[in-house]
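Everyone, carefully examine this protein record:
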Amino acid sequence: MAWKYKYTKSTDLETEALWSVLANVPGWPSVDPGIELLEMDEDAAPGAMFLLKPRGGPRIRFVIECFDPPSIYRDRCNLLGAIMRTTHQLVRRPNGTRIDVEISVEGPLSLLWSRLVGRKHSRGIPKQTENLIQAARAAKMC
């Protein structure tokens, strides 16, 4: 059994401007106030691990599964009986970029984890995406 959530937002910004913010994993707390703590001791790349603590939530260990500049970022969190993945895909368009975000929870306990973690995570995606756009716009102006 699996659970999925998808969100799409378009912007006039170039893919590279958005990627520079998305790829800076240690800098996410400055873009997303929902992140209380993020620890990462290595560069963002496939196989790199980081620890993230959402405000009011537990510390969660993630591994980067896909890091394909400037278009695809995906991480994975191993939960007891399930795996949660979050994918950001930046699709170049004639007048900017389409941002596709997908969260999936798969495994025997996916129904449980989608209710405990996945749905809460998904509710924050529109605001997180807007924060990504604003941070990329601000960086571009500097």
User: Anything to note?
Assistant: Strands lie at 2-11, 35-39, 49-54, 60-68, 72-79, 82-93, 96-106. Residues 1 and 120 are 19 Å apart (CA to CA).
